[in-house]
Specification:
Blueprint (H helix, E strand, L loop, with lengths): L1 H40 L3 E2 L20 H15 L4 E2 L20 H9 L18 H30 L1 H85 L5 H12 L5 H15 L2 H6 L12 H100 L6 H135 L5 H16 L6 H39 L5 H57 L1
Antiparallel strand pairs: 1-2
Organism: Huiozyma naganishii (strain ATCC MYA-139 / BCRC 22969 / CBS 8797 / KCTC 17520 / NBRC 10181 / NCYC 3082 / Yp74L-3)
Protein name: Mto2p-binding domain-containing protein
Keywords: Coiled coil
Length: 677
């Protein structure tokens, strides 16, 4: 509420200032008029010193918020502070001599003051008029009083309107209307721009119809050519596979590496024909003898001849070169087709421009025909007017003839008049016939023109339908063109990727060849170390079994020796698991045999100790020596057993290391084979 009051007060301040200026100007004008009349009448008017500005009447900010009550109280207080203007003595010096004899009781203003109580509605208790005032001055003052009351009431109404919000709403409505008009103008300008843009776009659509059709046809041709080339490419790859299979079947002089390369090339897909050709050419170059290479640079005797293998290799080289040339020709065809499509696009643009020119000509011709129709219609109207004028003249002549017949029936010139009448009737009939023929002709012409207009309208509707279809066809052609361009770009990228893959395959194969030599040396060294280690273990085991022959059965020893012979048959580290199982069985047998020998030996020693207890007194010295020997043997046995355990642990550790190395090498070989594939 306070915010609305403040806003209304801000809106009322300029209005109040304007009204204040107008009231002051009017009061000054009226004061000047009244001062002139008073000077003529001999009065002296005194202007009050404690007058207040009318802006105090429009001060609307109140502390308690009750606007109307505060305004009325403020209005009453301001009115009480006002005073009626009085006359000064300096303004009427000629009346100073009669000042003592002046009859103030007879003054009409004083009588009015006494009767009315000194203007109680204005709060003026005292006023002094020292000289007499005329009736004219009184009427002027009353008029000023009425005008001031009217101004105050108008100001009150304005303030009330501001408080209720009606005046504010009218201002806001006016501002809103002005803003709405501005927005409407902006929208109209935008609408005109949009319409112009729409017309331009429609023209562009019409221009791009035939262009898209031709592009579609060209793209279809390129796609068909590409499909034919791909079919030829598949046939070539089948032929290459057949040649590789034939070479592998008939050629026995190839190494394992070359055969593996040919098999890997054969297993490649139809898309990777370049790696196949490279592998085939490489194998053929490697398989050719040195004499064939020398024959390319030097002259051979006439008796030298070329073998069937050399002929096959040369034919294969020729076919590979032809395949390379065919692939390059395929790429050239695709590039030429793209160039042709660009040229066709330019031609399409030119043809679309011509089509637009033809449409403009058709539009101009239709406008000319409409103008002709309008001219024909105007001519028909003029002829109809001429016919109506002729009919009027004919009627007037008929009337004249009738009058002349009545006047001159009995005169001598009646015959002449009859003849003239007959002539006129003939002329009238001729004119009527001519009018009918002209009217029929004009009606036929009008019907013809109407038919032509119908035909033009039908042609325009057909053109509109054709334009719609053309726009739809253009959109479809654009989409098809985009699809075809995407397909061609994808195929070109696939061809480039195939070339890159072939190059990468060759580089990987060269790296594999570089890695195979150190791998072979490493495997050979590893196999040699494993063979030496195995032979040493087998030698020790045979010695152990030779020792154990003395105390163990011959059958068990023969079984363990058979296991040693089977271990000798396993060559290479690839049979490590089988060898390890055999070694474990042998070690278990040795452990059980040693355990049995030691146990029997200990029993024997204990038996001998029991027998020697009977002769302890006699053979004390012998028993002590015997015990020392037994302890020595036990110590040696334990030392030998510990040594064998350490040897077996070292052998197991060595075998585990060899297994890990073998696994790493297998992984490397598998990875190299996968990358080569």
């Amino acid at each position: 509420m306070e915010q609305t009051l403040q806003r209304n007060s801000k809106l009322a301040e300029p209005l109040a200032e304007d009204l204040e200026e107008r009231v002051l100007s009017m009061s000054l004008e009226e004061g000047s008029d009244s001062s002139g009349t008073n000077s003529n009448a001999g009065h002296n008017v005194e202007v009050p010193e404690n007058t207040h500005s009318s802006s105090q009447l429009l001060d609307r900010q109140t502390p308690d918020g009750n606007e109307l009550e505060d305004y009325e109280s403020r209005d009453e207080s301001n009115l009480k502070n006002l005073s009626v203007p009085t006359l000064k003595e300096q303004m009427t010096p000629w009346r100073q001599n009669n000042r003592a004899t002046a009859n103030t009781d007879g003054s009409p203003i004083e009588r009015m003051d006494k009767e009315r109580g000194g203007f109680p509605f204005l709060g003026m208790d005292k006023f002094s008029i020292k000289q007499t005032v005329s009736d004219k001055d009184l009427s002027i003052l009353q008029h000023q009083l009425r005008s001031s009351k009217l101004r105050i009431s108008s100001l009150e109404e304005i303030v009330k309107g501001l408080n209720t919000g009606e005046f504010n709403m009218t201002l806001f409505d006016a501002l809103r209307k002005q803003e709405a008009r501005h927005e409407i103008d902006v929208l109209k300008t935008n609408l005109s721009k949009k319409q112009s843009e729409i017309s331009e776009l429609e023209k562009q659509l019409e221009l791009s119809k035939e262009e898209c059709q031709k592009l579609r046809q060209d793209n279809l041709d390129t796609v068909e050519m590409a499909e034919e080339q791909l079919k030829n490419w598949d046939e070539v790859s089948h032929k290459v596979d057949f040649l590789i299979a034939d070479i592998l079947h008939n050629g026995s002089h190839f190494t394992e590496q070359e055969a593996q390369e040919l098999n890997a090339a054969k297993e490649l897909g139809h898309e990777l024909i370049i790696p196949k050709l490279n592998a085939l050419g490489k194998v053929i170059h490697q398989s050719l003898p040195q004499e064939d290479v020398i024959a390319n640079s030097t002259q051979l005797d006439a008796k030298n001849y070329i073998t069937s293998d050399e002929q096959i290799g040369s034919q294969m080289e020729i076919e590979i070169e032809q395949l390379h040339k065919g692939y390059e020709g395929f790429i050239r065809v695709i590039s030429t087709n793209l160039d042709k499509s660009a040229i066709l696009e330019d031609e399409l643009k030119l043809q679309l421009d011509r089509q637009q020119q033809l449409i403009d000509k058709i539009y101009a011709e239709t406008s000319i025909e409409t103008k002709r129709d309008k001219s024909h219609i105007s001519n028909v109207k003029s002829l109809q007017e001429l016919i109506s004028t002729l009919q009027r003249t004919i009627r007037e002549k008929d009337q004249e003839i009738a009058m002349s017949e009545t006047k001159y029936q009995q005169s001598e010139g009646a015959k002449k008049l009859k003849l003239q009448n007959a002539k006129l009737n003939k002329e009238l009939v001729d004119l009527k016939n001519l009018e009918e023929t002209n009217q029929a002709r004009w009606e036929e012409l009008v019907t013809q023109l109407e038919d032509e207009l119908r035909d033009c309208n039908a042609a325009n509707s057909k053109l509109a339908d054709i334009i719609k279809r053309m726009s739809q066809d253009i959109s479809g052609l654009q989409q098809a063109n985009e699809r075809l361009t995407n397909e061609t770009t994808d195929r070109i990228e696939q061809a480039k990727e195939i070339q890159k893959l072939a190059i990468e395959n060759e580089s990987l194969r060269s790296e594999i060849r570089k890695l195979e030599l150190p791998r072979k040396t490493f495997t050979q060294q590893r196999d040699l170390e494993f063979h030496n280690f195995r032979q040493s273990l087998l030698l020790h085991l045979t010695n152990v079994f030779e020792v154990l022959k003395r105390v163990i059965k011959r059958q068990s020893i023969d079984q363990s020796m058979k296991k040693i012979s089977t271990i000798q048959q396993f060559e290479g580290i690839s049979n490590l698991r089988n060898v390890q199982s055999k070694f474990e069985s042998l070690y278990n047998f040795i452990e059980t045999a040693l355990d049995a020998v030691v146990e029997s030996y200990m029993n024997l020693v204990l038996d001998r100790s029991d027998e020697s207890s009977y002769s302890r007194q006699n053979d004390e010295s012998d028993s002590s020596d015997y015990q020392l020997r037994v302890k020595e043997l036990q110590r040696k046995w334990l030392a030998e057993r510990e040594r064998r355990k350490l040897d077996s642990n070292a052998a197991e550790l060595r075998i585990q290391n060899l297994e890990t190395e073998a696994e790493l090498l297998r992984n490397q070989l598998n990875g190299s084979h996968r990358s080569s594939r």
